[in-house]
Amino acid sequence: MPENAQKETNESSHGSQPLETQQDSLMQKPQQKSQVSGNRLVLARAYRPLCFADLLGQDHARRVIENALRNERLHHAILLSGPRGVGKTTLARLISRAINCKSRKSGTDSCGDCSACQTMAGESLDIIEIDAASHTGVDGVRDIVDGAGYRPVVLKYRVYIIDEVHMLSRSAFNALLKTLEEPPPHLHFLFATTEPDKIPLTVLSRCLRLELRRLDNETLASHYRDVSKREGRKLEEDAAMVLAQAAEGSVRDGLSLLDCAFSESNDDTITLTQVRSMLLLSDGHALYDLLEAIVDEDLELSLTRLDSLLNKGGQAEVLLREIMERLHRLSRFRVVGAIENSLEPSDRERGGALSERLSLATLSRMWQLSLRGYEELRLAPDPRASLDMLIVRLVCAAGMPLPSEVLTRLSRDAASVQPAGSAREEKDITTSDSSLSSKLRVAFPNAKIEEQEIEEQ
User: Fold this and answer.
1) Which of 2-6, 280-284, 312-316, 422-426 has the lowest average pLDDT?
2) How many helices (H) and strands (E) does the chain have?
3) Which domains does the chain have, with CATH numbers?
């Protein structure tokens, strides 16, 4: 085996495998903290899944792997794709241990006691993890191809785990094709990537592809509360939901934020206020105060409440994202007709009432204005001034009538302004000629309207 590949194997195995042996006791004893031998592990590493059942939110991929292991029909090349922090590398490591274990539990999970599991718990030359972002050229792949014909040193299979495989060059992929299509029986490839579209189709066609998905907020929040309990801390339900929303479906991102929350507070209980302050988020009720002022078309009050939120340390870009989140939730309230129990207290208390005051068309229009304002804010020399002008537009949009309401009002006004003797002319204008320009002339006889055909929307 090439010297550089062996060095990567040693570093990877030494950096991750012994920790997972220590994690067994962590997962079995809920009250034991992630303080191991005086060296504290970050939560994302201390609570890495040790079996397929512990893998959160990926039941579809887990079923495929478990059935393949039970039937001894595991594909020799598996591509694990999905967003960051959802378990791609973790699943690859679980597969590599399972196929090399001599006595798997339930036919799927590694036992952890056999000689092969003991070898994998230490430094193993047969499980090789490669970061494709650091080895993009063809030379690293040639080392894999040259060593593919040699049998494993200790284990039954030699496994190559290539992370961020889409970073390999076109030449590197071409050099791997033949080995990937007809590998020796003792060789397995496990690829992980966040951008599968960048992988050549010739490689994709030779792999079993499993798409890992983002996790829902309820699953993440429950997991974070469980981890907090194991660490001897209490995480409030609402605080856990805010962390889950900030994680955007990533288990690892949320655990990193939870680590930060533990470090920021010495209290046994992590509250919603502490989490919002850590994430630089605004108070939920203050956001609804701002939205209510916008809906009431009170521009002065809206700008005053906006200044209050920004003067408390809020950032214009973050605040606008929160406004857009509230508009999205109000739209869902309007459609679904019920308040989701998983949302924050401010949403449950005030979201439903405010959504009843706005139509879907108005909410959609405010969302579109906010989305365009978000693009402008990132380009503006003064983000705060850009946000002020967006609030002005939102106040104007909140009271703007819909096109259908305008046409209805014009038709009604046209009927009321015509004299009784000109009923025939009124009929000709309102029924025969349906153009908007004619209706405008009837509704506003003293206005100067250009002779231009305006299509009715």
Assistant:
1) 2-6
2) 22, 9
3) 3-211 (3.40.50.300), 217-278 (1.10.8.60), 293-398 (1.20.272.10), 410-443 (no CATH)
